[in-house]
Specification:
Layout lengths: L1 H20 L1 H16 L1 E8 L2 E9 L5 E5 L10 H4 L7 E5 L16 H15 L4 E6 L1 H12 L4 E7 L11 H7 L11 H11 L8 H13 L1 H13 L15 E6 L9 H5 L6 E6 L6 H4 L1 H13 L3
Parallel strand pairs: 3-4, 3-5, 5-6, 6-7, 7-8
Antiparallel strand pairs: 1-2, 2-4
Helix pairs in contact: 1-2, 4-5, 7-8
């Protein structure tokens, strides 16, 4: 028994050492673990000339939820959130074109172009109607899609969406107006910690080895993200004129301490929507599904249940 326990201890130490020394392996292992917990699998498909990556799982014959991440993010943002939804729905979390593992097509990444790409992706997936949820930039795309294709959207959920001229300007836009560097783009290793502090009130725990690896990956994408952000500004499409066209019941969910996009957006959006619901989470920043995955998922599920 002693030999068995000693051997097991040596094995565990060896595994821990490998994961610490090889953060890419550590990240892959954590991803796989979270996928399995959520009941999701990694898939990909070709849409025209694009290779699109996504997670899919849950009830094969259930109503479909389509989840859209924000700027400089990817489908991994939805893993812990999806765990609380796959027992009752078919869940699809996309890497939008230009992000994550999906292809980076030439041309624009403005929300109008991405909304049309989304239509093509849903066609390729055979999704005629879906409950659509987007965070930040993904929320901007989701809202525009819902206005353009009202018959394809059963419900709409917007988690701190972009696209609104807010009564109170967010800290992000105040920084940009002053000519400061964009805190959402990582150019130096120390910028990654700044990003975490800016997006979250309480950042999720990350081992230092993994944090350094994620910082390196983000730095490698800095030029691309700068270009995308510039396109989002130069080819900006305001949501205010199109919100009245949205027919689907719409949940507006925001973290009260959001520094990226101010919670006062709700005051603009609510009177323009036909069927709005509102949830504001105390002590939460810009990414509720990451900072409080269970709580935000239960709020979303309560909204979905109210539609039945």
């Amino acid at each position: 028994m002693k030999k068995l326990l000693s051997g097991l201890l040596v094995l565990l130490i060896g595994i821990a050492t490998i994961l610490y020394c090889f953060p890419a392996t550590q990240l892959a292992s954590l991803r796989l673990f979270e996928q399995q917990r959520a009941g999701l699998s990694h898939q990909q498909l070709h849409v025209g000339d694009l290779n699109i990556h996504y997670y899919e799982g849950g009830l094969a014959n259930g109503e479909t939820l389509v989840l859209l991440h924000g700027f400089a993010a990817d489908k991994d943002n939805w893993l812990r959130f999806s765990r609380h939804l796959t027992d009752g729905y078919r869940v699809i979390a996309l890497d939008l074109p230009g992000f994550g593992e999906s292809d980076r097509p030439p041309g624009s990444y403005d929300v109008g172009t991405q909304a049309e790409r989304l239509a093509n992706i849903l066609d390729a997936l055979g999704v005629e109607q879906a409950h659509l949820l987007g965070n930040s930039m993904g929320g901007h795309i989701a809202a525009l899609f819902a206005a353009r294709y009202p018959d394809r959207v059963r419900s709409l959920a917007l988690f701190a969406n972009a696209g609104i001229d807010t009564p109170n300007k967010s800290e992000l836009f105040k920084l940009i107006e002053r000519g400061a560097s964009n805190p959402l783009v990582v150019r130096r290793p120390e910028d990654f910690q700044r990003l975490l502090q800016f997006v979250f009130v309480e950042p999720p725990y990350l081992p230092e080895s993994l944090k350094g690896y994620l910082a390196e990956r983000a730095m490698a994408n800095a030029t691309h993200y700068d270009q995308v952000f510039q396109q989002l500004i130069e080819r900006y499409i305001p949501l205010e004129p199109v919100l009245p066209k949205i027919q689907a019941p719409t949940l507006l969910l925001w973290g009260k301490q959001d520094r990226v996009l101010d919670v006062s957006s709700i005051d603009v959006m609510r009177p323009l929507l036909q069927k709005p619901s509102v949830a504001i989470m105390e002590g939460v920043g810009h990414a509720p599904m990451l900072e409080r995955p269970e709580e935000s998922a239960l709020l979303y599920r309560h909204f979905l249940d109210s539609l039945k």
